[in-house]
Type VII secretion-associated serine protease mycosin (Streptomyces griseorubiginosus), 391 residues
Amino acid sequence: MSVTTRRAGLLSVLLAASVALVPPTAAHADGIRAKQWALDAMHTQQAWQTTKGAGVTVAVLDTGVENDHPDLVGNVLTGKDMIGFGAVRGQRPWARHGTAMAGIIAGHGHGVGNDDGVMGIAPEAKILPVRVILEDDDPARAKARNTRGNALAEGIRWAADHGANVINLSLGDDSASAHPEAGEDDAVQYALRKGAVVVASAGNGGEKGDHISYPAAYPGVIAATAVDKFGTRASFSTRRWYATVAAPGDDVVIADPDHKYYEGWGTSAASAFVSGAVALIKAAHPDLTPAQIKRLLEETARNAPAGGRDDSRGFGFVDPAAALKAAARLRPYDLQPAAYGEKYFGSGPDTATSQDDTASWAAPLAGGVGVGLLVVAVVLWRGRRRSHEDF
């Protein structure tokens, strides 16, 4: 099977790149749900006994989001295009990455009993799409290469002003020249002050020098690193002091505007999973502050590294069910985001052992089932009545 790779883009973000077709033996809808190992790993069935995210709006600052995808119909609000050029709605190079992230967060599946397609972590939450980056294969990208502009900062502020309870940033710049932008930092702090939780991908630079990635490194942001189904740090996942928690980021099933399904990898996906977890917490406890929710995720994470945290997985694997249980004992209070302190410079990228046995949750998943910078995708299923064809 052929594999092609294309890189670069607005905000120096690397998006969906490599595609290969899986034999038609995988073309069964029930096979898609079975491949969503993250649903079991994140204890979603336990969390859904409390809430599925109803009443919460998650802003997806990304490429476009297809509101007519069968797994997202009814869950996508009217958003905003902060770019204003390039591909347009209805064209495939407009909404691939954004649709994939929206599905991870708030996909509700489709078909009888919604048993087909992708199920998100918070399937009753709403998605507020804000287009701030170009797709990897957008023809206009060559003109925008290495141009950051103000789209991200403006998008964060717009989302915070238009009802976003959670802001997902499955994107970032982790190039060697990456540096903080005052306007972006100010926008993040503005959103946090308005009560919106900001989640970002930690970066995919784990094999390229672990360069700091922005916006993940801005104060107050929940930075998501990636692990595989065994709970092991994904080799591509950036190891840095700002890591908050880890989430699924390898062999992740994603929805696509072409109504096929793909397997992807990247801290893009990890960020979306964490945003889904935050949406569940906000739905059950809407008055909790961003700082409280960040602390909840840290204190209830599973499989914590020795010493409590490290740069690879932060405080451990995100566990929304445990966070919901702990949140019931909290009361809202006025916490403001603070700059990172000395405690974030600790044990380094990796530690030898964990407080919990990762295999206790990972091994059953591995046996049972058979992106914000780079997502490599493999098509799994197009649909029962659609022909199987090359992508």
Residues 10-331+339-381 form a domain with the Rossmann fold fold (CATH 3.40.50.200). The chain is about 25% helix and 15% strand. The two ends are 11 Å apart (CA to CA).
